[in-house]
Every structure is written in structure tokens, then in C-alpha cells.
Amino acid sequence: MDPKLVLLVVGAVAVMCVVLTMGRYRFAVAALFVALTFLPVRLLGFGDVPFGWTVGVSSAVPALTTYNTLLLGFALVLLVERKLPRSARFAVPVVVFCGFGALVLWPASPNVSSGLLHVLACACAWAVGLHLGARLDPDGASGRFVALVLLLVACVLGLSVASQLASGAGDVERASGLFGHPATLGKLGVIFLGLLLPLSRSTAGRTRAMSYAAALVLFAMTGPTLSRANILAMVVVILAWALLLPSTRNLGKKILLPLGTVAVFVPVLDSLLTRFAVDSEGGDRPELLAAGYRQIAAQPWTGTGPNNYVTAVGGHEPIVALTGYPVHNMFLLTAAELGIVGAAFFFLPFVYALGVALRRVRTDGQVGDHARGILVLLLGITVVGLSGWAVVQQPVAETLFLVCGVLLGQVQRTRPVVDDAPATSTVSSPGAARTTTPARAARPVPRGARP
Q1: What ranges does the record list as Low complexity composition bias (predicted)?
Q2: Within a domain: residue 83?
Q3: 375 lies in which domain range?
Q4: pTM of the prediction?
């Protein structure tokens, strides 16, 4: 018997034991964020990586990983239990389109199959995030647990950067931590900021403290990567958050948050300026960008197929064949691979989330906080994605869909939250006590208003 299959069975049994003792909500949050960040491990591959494979939005052959297995499993449970949120339907068009493309438009190759699995995992991440967000109580035990998990994840990633710098391993001029490229850390940092900033407005002191601490660690770990777009995006996210905060009682935060963020990146300012002086255009980006425009013009509606850009375009674009990299723009790369219609379907969940957030951005309380979180998240990711393509690469794309789904689920939540705790646990915090008595507490406090 395949040892990997035995490992999967043993792991499934262990997961069941953890769920029974930890609670489904807490297990889902912890397992997903851990798997997406410092344990994105390949569990089972379906073929060998071909010689000469360079890079794509997913692996060269279809593979079950820790995170896509969890996402597919959780989404299947929601489907079977009929608990899929209504807004999950905005991820359906891209799945249907990719199914049609696999049958009619695109080559039947391992890398395209891997790309299709990647798109499906992103759609599942959106649905799972919506469900988790609808059950999140930022002022209760679940909000405290999410902040704790994000703090632990940030600390592990930060320690990996510190260890790399201390030992001089790898590219010491640009730290990459646990990942193969320095920019991955900053992209995850920008995404997590979108969730941490609303949690920093919780009425629970420990949740606020852990959220601020996690954000500080994210800033500190991104600096040594010297990723210009990511650092700029983090500064933009904080500036936008400060500007969007209600003016009443938040004047100090509007001033201190941007100043503190800039201060964190002062130690790496000289190195950043040196990078700008040496490589102001970002290497081969202009040539890759021109090649991307030509490819979209050649196949505007069908695209090359997901995860197939370098393979398909490298045959007739010398710059792609020479570098082995796709166009460094997440919007253009998606349009080149899925076609313009497919790209529109891929980004449809974010467009919908943006529309909802714009309508709720001036709302006070948790709804307004998470609506502002959606806006700053999408703004930061746009800053990164205009000069980079890896936002749509695994596991960053799955993380983005998951976090945006959580934020939107919280904005659209219409019923009181009951924190998901183990069956043997008791209510021990004021937040948990408040959320377990919906009958009277829900009436005097309108949805979205702070008590």
C-alpha cells in the first residue's frame, strides 16, 4: 500500500479526533491558516514534473496539498449540509467556465489540470471564508481565537526570516523565510492585514492586543524582503485604513498608525533606495508586459488555459522563453490564461465584495469595520498585483479568497453568533456569554452598531 495513502488515512483519523475536542470552527480556522502559510505541503501528486518546467500559478502536475485538501473537504461538507452561503454563487461562474474550457478550449495537459484544480480550490476558499466570517464574533471567543492564530502564524513566519538573516542562509540581501521567493511573505502580510485591522477594533482587549502585535510582526518580517510593491502596499493599506476610520474618537489612530508603519520600514530605507537606483524598471517587466498584451490580443476569449502561460507563450515570445516567467501583472496574466471572460469570472467575487463594502463603509461597528477591511485589502492587493503575478499563484490566491470571504461573511451576517466550542466547554468570557443569548441582546443593539 502506498505510504502516502496510509498517512492520509492516519491523518484523517487524527483530524476527526481534533475536531471532536477543539470544535469545528476553531479547527477550520487553525488548520486552514497553518496549511496556507508555513505548512503548504504536497500530500499526493498525480504524475512527475516534466523536464524544463519553469513556473506557473500552480504546480506542474495536479497534486493534493494540505490546503487544497482542507478547502475541498470543508466546501464539500458545507454542500452536503446545505450550509453554503448565498454569496458563494459568485464563485460558480469561473468554475463552470473552466469546466467548459477544459472540455472544449484548452489542451488536456497535466499543467492545465493542475491549474483547474487551483481555480476550484480558490472557489472553495471563497465559500469556506464566507461561512467562517458569518460565524465570527470579533468581540467574543471566536474573534480572540482568530487573532491568536494569526499572531502565531505571523510569529512563525517572522522567526523564519530572523533565522535566515542570522544564519546567512539563502539570499541574505532579500529574506524569503519559509518560501522560495521573498515577495511571498509580503503578499501574505498584506492579505492578513485586511483581517487584522478590523479585529483591532474589537471591544475585547486581548483581541485588540494580539491583532496589533500580529500586524507589527508582519511589518517587521516584510521589511527584510525588500519587496518594493509589498512594502508600498502595506503603507497604502494603513493610510487608507486611517483615512476611512470614523473621525470620532479616532484622531490619534489616524495620526499614529501611518507614522508607526513608516517608522517600521525606516531601517530598510537605504536598501530600498539602492534597489530603485540599480533596477528602477523591475528587470524584464517591461518586455514581459508587452508580451502579455500581445498574447491577450492573439487569444482574447479563449486564453492559453490556466497554469499554461509560460508553456504556450514561450514558444513564440523570446522574452518568456528566456526568463521562464509570465507577465508580471495578475490581471493580465489571468486574462491571458482564462481569456477576458474567464478573468472577469475569476475576479467576480472581489467585485461583488467591493460593491457591498462601498455601501457599508460608513456604517458604525463591526459591519463598518469589516467593510473597511475589504476596501483596504482589495486596494493593497491591487497595488501588489499591478506589478506582480504571484497574487494569483497558490497558496497566496487561496489565502486571498479565504480572507476576503471571511470579511464579506462578517459584513453580511444577519443572525447572532454562537461561538463554536467543544461540547464539554463552558462559557467563560463576557463575549461568549453575550453571543449565547440572542433573544434579548439582538433587539436593543442594531446590527453593526457597538453596544
Answers
A1: 430-451
A2: yes
A3: 9-38+67-415
A4: 0.87
